[in-house]
Structure formats: C-alpha cells, structure tokens
Write a structure and sequence with these properties.
309 residues, 8 strands
Length: 309
C-alpha cells in the first residue's frame, strides 16, 4: 500500500475520532446544562422545597438577637411564669403563661394560645406573650421544640424538621393548650403565631374548630386543601409580606378566595415592601411601619372577637 493511501486513511480516521469526541463533548455539555437548568428551576421554585428549607432560605442572614423593639413594654403590668399545662405522650407540655397583674374582678380572662416562630420559645416570643397579655388576656406560649431553642438557621431548620416529622405530637400540645384554657374557664380562646408558628396557628384553628374563636396568622404557610379549610369556624386574620419569597401573595390570595367561597370570615393584609418575618424586630427583614400596622390590626381583631368590643 502506497504511503499516500496510508496517509489518507489515517487522515479520515483521525477526522472521525475528532467528530466523535466533539459529539460526546456536546452531549456532555447539553446534559450538564440540563442539570444546571433543573437545579436553577428547583432553587427558584420554592414550592419544590420542604417547609423547613423555605424557612431557612428566608432566614439565612437572621439571628434571633433581642432588640428594644422586640421587648416593648405591655400596655399594663403583667405577671409571667413557666408552667406545665398538660401531658403529651407521657411528657409534660411546657409553656410560658402571662396575665395582667390586676385582672378584672370576678371575670375570667379570654385565652390566647401563642405559637413561636421557627427559632423556638425564646426571649423574643416571651416578650411578645407579655405584650399580648397586657391587652387583657391570659396568654400561653406553647413550646413545640421540647425546651430547645435555636440561634442559627441550621439549628432552627433541624428543630422545625423534627416537629414536621411528628405532627401528631405538635397537635397534641395544641389540644392540651386549648384544654388548659377550658379548665381555667376562659370564655373565649384565640390563637396567634408567626412564621413557623403562623402556619401552626392556622392549623390549630382547623384542627380544633370548636375550641378556637379567633385566629391570627403572621406569614404562615397557607392551607391548600379545600376540605380542610371547610373545617374553619373561627374568624381569621392573615398578615403577609408582598415580597415574601417563601410564601407568595398569590398562594395567600388563593386560600383567601377559597375561604370566602366557603362562606368563612377571613381578612388578609399583604404589605408592600415587606418580606417574610417583617414583624420580627430581631431579624434583618423587620419593617417597622408594616409591623406596627399589623400589631394594631391584631389587637383590634382579638378585641372584637374575644372581648366582644
């Protein structure tokens, strides 16, 4: 075989190898691009994430450090104490109870079940509980974390995930809080929560429909199940941020529309320029104007539905 023919065969072979390599490389690039696109879509689509992951994304730069705004004084002097208010799965159900120092003579106070945000029952939530008690309530902050609190997003995510993995235990704590107030002779009972606790505030109103007379939800996870929403008996106040990336306003308004179709009493306020945790004075998302307005609405709402004024 002549040298010319050999060189021609080698040239063709090398060309085929190069084409094959380019084809393989192109497929690898396409596959990697597809994986990147999928990952980006997953990151941008919070609905594909767990609730704990959503909360972690919203609080990644936060730390629950108390500020003067977080420890605002109650409208009247109150007393507060750590108590065990029931038993759940063989263990004490623990909480923090605050009441007016001088309650009305001869009258039982309305009760408020207070549910902590994803950091746990920390000093900020205790301060909020005292502030609520100052409005004329026996306010009981329940502890869904079994005595633990978090000071980092990773720690909070771990504690929250533990609750979500055992929802019956959390519901048992909330039932125990409702039973506690009934034993105390509370004429009416409300529930309030923020963030993680906001979602549980809504779920408490759905889970204990005959025991809750008013519910306030601060940027808590909306409920999509129409049949479950039909269980609601209490008037509901929802307070959300327009810039909340974990709980889009569209999802909130969808729940609101369903509740109205079902003939439920629901009032939702979405604050422009506010994101998730806008009412938490210890976080970087705090928005004083929105937080102040939400507080005034909360006070008026509970006064209307729990105090009859």
């Amino acid at each position: 075989m002549s040298r010319t023919i050999v060189l021609a065969i080698l040239s063709v072979s090398l060309g085929l190898v190069a084409l094959g390599a380019r084809a393989i490389g192109a497929r690898a690039i396409e596959n990697q691009a597809a994986k990147t696109a999928d990952a980006a879509a997953g990151a941008g689509n919070v609905a594909s994430l767990s609730e704990a992951d959503q909360m972690a994304a919203q609080h990644q730069h936060d730390r629950p450090a108390a500020t003067p705004a977080a420890t605002a004084a109650p409208a009247q002097p109150v007393t507060a104490e750590e108590i065990d208010f029931g038993e759940v799965q063989g263990k004490p159900a623990h909480g923090y109870l605050a009441r007016p120092q001088t309650p009305p003579a001869g009258a039982h106070l309305p009760g408020l079940i207070v549910i902590h945000e994803w950091w746990g029952l920390n000093d900020n939530i205790k301060a909020a509980t005292r502030r609520l008690a100052g409005e004329g309530y026996a306010a009981l902050a329940v502890d869904l974390y079994g005595g633990k609190v978090a000071d980092t997003p990773d720690g909070a995510k771990q504690l929250m995930s533990g609750v979500m993995a055992n929802r019956p235990a959390a519901f048992a704590v909330l039932h125990a809080a409702d039973d506690f107030f009934k034993r105390q002779g509370a004429p009416k009972i409300g529930v309030i929560g923020w963030c993680f606790g906001g979602g549980w505030s809504l779920q408490t109103a759905l889970e204990v429909p005959q025991g809750i007379d008013a519910a306030v939800v601060y940027y808590g996870q909306p409920e999509k199940d129409r049949a479950r929403l039909e269980r609601l008996r209490a008037p509901l106040l929802g307070l959300y941020g327009a810039d909340d990336q974990g709980i889009p306003p569209a999802a909130v308004h969808e729940m609101e529309a369903t509740l109205k179709q079902l003939g439920k009493s629901v009032e939702v306020h979405v604050y422009d320029g506010a994101g998730h945790a806008f009412a938490n004075p210890s976080g970087t998302n705090y928005r004083p104007a929105a937080a102040d307005d939400a507080w005034q609405r909360t006070v008026a709402f509970f006064k209307q539905h729990l105090q009859g004024a």
